[in-house]
Amino acid sequence: MRQKTFLLPTLRDIPSDADVKSHQLMLRAGMMRQNAAGVYTYLPLAKRVISKVEAIVREELEAIDVQELTLPSLHPSELWQETGRWDKMGDELIRLKDRHGRDFALGPTHEEVITSIIRDAIGSYKKLPLNVFQIQTKFRDERRPRFGLLRGREFIMKDAYSFHDTEESLDDTYQAMYRAYERIFTRVGLTFRAVIADSGAMGGKDTFEFMALADVGEDTIAYSDTSNYAANIEMAAVQAGNVENTNPSVQLLPVKADDEIIILLLGAGHELNEVKSLHELQVKSLSTLNDQEVQEAFSTEKGSLSIQTIEGYRLIADQSLQGASSFTIENTGDAVNCTELSIDSYADLRMIQEGDASPDGQGTIQFARGIEIGQVFKLGTFYSESMGASFLDQNGRANPYKMGCYGIGISRTVAAIIEQHNDENGIVWPVAVAPFDLHLLTLNSKNEEQAELSEKLYTTLKQSGWDVLYDDRPERAGVKFKDADLIGLPIRVSVGKRASEGVVEVKVRSTGESEDVHIDNLADMIQTKLQELSNV
Amino acid sequence: MRQKTFLLPTLRDIPSDADVKSHQLMLRAGMMRQNAAGVYTYLPLAKRVISKVEAIVREELEAIDVQELTLPSLHPSELWQETGRWDKMGDELIRLKDRHGRDFALGPTHEEVITSIIRDAIGSYKKLPLNVFQIQTKFRDERRPRFGLLRGREFIMKDAYSFHDTEESLDDTYQAMYRAYERIFTRVGLTFRAVIADSGAMGGKDTFEFMALADVGEDTIAYSDTSNYAANIEMAAVQAGNVENTNPSVQLLPVKADDEIIILLLGAGHELNEVKSLHELQVKSLSTLNDQEVQEAFSTEKGSLSIQTIEGYRLIADQSLQGASSFTIENTGDAVNCTELSIDSYADLRMIQEGDASPDGQGTIQFARGIEIGQVFKLGTFYSESMGASFLDQNGRANPYKMGCYGIGISRTVAAIIEQHNDENGIVWPVAVAPFDLHLLTLNSKNEEQAELSEKLYTTLKQSGWDVLYDDRPERAGVKFKDADLIGLPIRVSVGKRASEGVVEVKVRSTGESEDVHIDNLADMIQTKLQELSNV
């Protein structure tokens, strides 16, 4: 592609409204422009990267026989009412009326639509398992769209849905998708972790989120420094039996669990993990009491809660306190013998901390921030049951499909790649997703020898099968170098003063190493270097 | 792909709600399902065809350096207000409000969005010409969605937009796109005509519509039986000098042209062409008077209009009447000498008819029905002027961009291909867009020899690089043959009773010819036949 007429509006300055690196660099490198809050145009350079990511996703999914289809973006409201999500989704679901006043949603996800299709199309266990995917624009009206492609209102997703007759079949596909995701994210050049995540309210079961590690990530991951273990911090179990001394200091934490007020006992310095506690206490809602609620329930202030004032309430202690024979109540300083407290039960209530033993028994917990780029999810039968989607089994009995769903944020993945692959001068693309393989520069396009050699190389390098961006602009060499670093193609080939000898400079963007090479050896050298870079 | 678990829900019966062949066949062949009026799911078989059409479009556009990007579907209303189309588009434009109450449109076309991007991104004649395209889901709230993919509310389009500094540059790109469209529609197997079309109200100039010939088409095309000439019937000029006798019978037609009532004189049996007449009379609106308006203006009934009653009104005659020395007024039977009428001017006012001489002087006009599958359009400066999008020319002066736009209905093209390629048994895919190249059938999957040979062929045929659909279902041979004809892959390979000898049957879907072949010669034969079919 000739850069002279390539739509590549690079910017010198960092845009003031972009807070994170990927957003800044995509604007500066002429990859995208904003059309409205959280709504972007992907310019040709970005489109090329997106296409390469999509091709890798397609390749890995087709390799395990996932079938591509395209579901519509306009969803009749009736479908979402069948599962109750028309009301549950709130403002994030973009709604509209057609000319006849009928209600539609703009699809943020497609469980309802695919379930309605399969409900009518399959019918027999003989056609199972089925696994289908699509790559498509999705819509979600985020309250605060931000960070460029990391949290937009219109974005590109790969979503897949699988249908099964047995739990084993669902698990097979779930595992196969998990492994495909590992291959996909590895191939696009990401450092990531598959973390145990919250299956939420929709009756789902197992779920892993794939997180690209990055400081700007909105999620905190707890991971083992020696094993594969990783979990969303809210899902990380804490090993029992961590009492560090025989008389630990503890805090009394009054909470409302569904409609009952109970007292939680946590070690001093420990933080309540509400997500885990919901599961452990088997309740639907859990909230710590505010000052007024404490006053009403205990006729005293939070800071004055004591063994005496909480008498009569159910008392549940964090499991790390199990085995301690006495405690010091943190806010009152009272020493309490264990027998004075009637602890009803012990449970895993607290947030894991850095330095804790890993729950899998291997290594120590570290924290990292992550960007969610994918998720695999066993949905179970929530959608098939609420929508009446069933198949006939071998005995002719109707059963609801067991379902899985599997998402990858394509546009977000592109942003995550940039978050992980940049330096002070710009983007540093991994070869597999680079918009072009090579950046060919004429340093002085008025010099005939340079122009002529550049034209010749442009032709021959393309013929060798590489994608070449050819900077044929009548700009100064300094401008071209700066843009080349900003755009960050893996290999730069500069045609300069030694053109007359047939010598050009080859520079590797990621390492900064450069050397002069005769054009007779250029193709071999590029081949070798791209190979090396791909193997990193 | 193994058909046993391929999502391919074929239907035996013709769905009652489908009126045209392509709609019926896409439902019956398990290619699509309706989600709402004019809103469809493309099942895997259709998705494969769409991908092949898209690949051909991409290839031909990239060959002439059109750059791919992706514009958003959510358009802030402000952009559409800049051109006045927010009001003009009426109910066809799907509108919605975001959570903050801001107005958005769902893009049916992207002139406003791309112009806003280029307005900020380019700025200099040095970066021109620019030509960008995208392939994307579009939305249009049709009053009467019908005929399946031929008139839907959510559909796939390729749209391209070009920007230029000179009329010559625009014309170069316009011609290049025209030729690319010819190649694209030829390659996907369509019989089509490029027809002269109406540039409408948006200040555009030249425009051609690409029409796939089909009886179900909503447009009538007038074309020459010997030359390339073709035009939308409303745009077809009529050759002057067609007076067939010296005393032709004529009709008096009172019309309101803008605010003036004038009398048009047309040959008997000729029909007024309002679109052409608007241009010829250089007015903005034109309508024939109704009975009441005639009564008010002429104090008589339509049938009683005579030379006397219309006295004083401007009289414009169809050019075919030029040269006649006398007329017979059709409704009164009065004979009128030409000198008695003060005809102000002659113009091309009437609809062309079958049998007329072609306007290009070559051959005779025939009519055909067509499906609009593409359009090339010189937009001129309507969008750039109304949105203030300008570049600096060589003298540093600001000029509005000259623009072109170029559309292809991708999903509609798929339907048009089926309209042209089917028989009483189902679809007959052209090789270039067939969802698979080969259909491999095991006629009796319980027979071990057949099953074994089929599995072996499935592997080797795929290794040869062909897309193979493998009917491994435990169905009767008759069911498999029926489905194979319905789905319509170019070549069917049936493994039946002669499996033990290593002999299979090869059948060509389009010609019906079949022959037995030994598996040692199978690949060569398939190669030859696909080659022959591709050259048709």
Automatic annotation (TrEMBL), chains A, B:
<feature type="domain" description="Aminoacyl-transfer RNA synthetases class-II family profile">
    <location>
        <begin position="48"/>
        <end position="430"/>
    </location>
</feature>
<dbReference type="InterPro" id="IPR023717">
    <property type="entry name" value="Pro-tRNA-Synthase_IIa_type1"/>
</dbReference>
<dbReference type="InterPro" id="IPR004154">
    <property type="entry name" value="Anticodon-bd"/>
</dbReference>
<dbReference type="InterPro" id="IPR050062">
    <property type="entry name" value="Pro-tRNA_synthetase"/>
</dbReference>
<dbReference type="InterPro" id="IPR036754">
    <property type="entry name" value="YbaK/aa-tRNA-synt-asso_dom_sf"/>
</dbReference>
<comment type="function">
    <text>Catalyzes the attachment of proline to tRNA(Pro) in a two-step reaction: proline is first activated by ATP to form Pro-AMP and then transferred to the acceptor end of tRNA(Pro). As ProRS can inadvertently accommodate and process non-cognate amino acids such as alanine and cysteine, to avoid such errors it has two additional distinct editing activities against alanine. One activity is designated as 'pretransfer' editing and involves the tRNA(Pro)-independent hydrolysis of activated Ala-AMP.</text>
</comment>
<keyword id="KW-0648">Protein biosynthesis</keyword>
<dbReference type="InterPro" id="IPR004500">
    <property type="entry name" value="Pro-tRNA-synth_IIa_bac-type"/>
</dbReference>
<keyword id="KW-0547">Nucleotide-binding</keyword>
<dbReference type="InterPro" id="IPR044140">
    <property type="entry name" value="ProRS_anticodon_short"/>
</dbReference>
<dbReference type="InterPro" id="IPR036621">
    <property type="entry name" value="Anticodon-bd_dom_sf"/>
</dbReference>
<dbReference type="InterPro" id="IPR002316">
    <property type="entry name" value="Pro-tRNA-ligase_IIa"/>
</dbReference>
<dbReference type="InterPro" id="IPR006195">
    <property type="entry name" value="aa-tRNA-synth_II"/>
</dbReference>
<comment type="subunit">
    <text>Homodimer.</text>
</comment>
<dbReference type="InterPro" id="IPR033730">
    <property type="entry name" value="ProRS_core_prok"/>
</dbReference>
<dbReference type="InterPro" id="IPR002314">
    <property type="entry name" value="aa-tRNA-synt_IIb"/>
</dbReference>
<dbReference type="InterPro" id="IPR045864">
    <property type="entry name" value="aa-tRNA-synth_II/BPL/LPL"/>
</dbReference>
<keyword id="KW-0963">Cytoplasm</keyword>
<protein>
    <recommendedName>
        <fullName>Proline--tRNA ligase</fullName>
        <ecNumber>6.1.1.15</ecNumber>
    </recommendedName>
</protein>
<dbReference type="Pfam" id="PF00587">
    <property type="entry name" value="tRNA-synt_2b"/>
</dbReference>
<comment type="similarity">
    <text>Belongs to the class-II aminoacyl-tRNA synthetase family. ProS type 1 subfamily.</text>
</comment>
<keyword id="KW-0030">Aminoacyl-tRNA synthetase</keyword>
<keyword id="KW-0067">ATP-binding</keyword>
<keyword id="KW-0436">Ligase</keyword>
<dbReference type="Pfam" id="PF03129">
    <property type="entry name" value="HGTP_anticodon"/>
</dbReference>
<dbReference type="GO" id="GO:0004827">
    <property type="term" value="F:proline-tRNA ligase activity"/>
</dbReference>
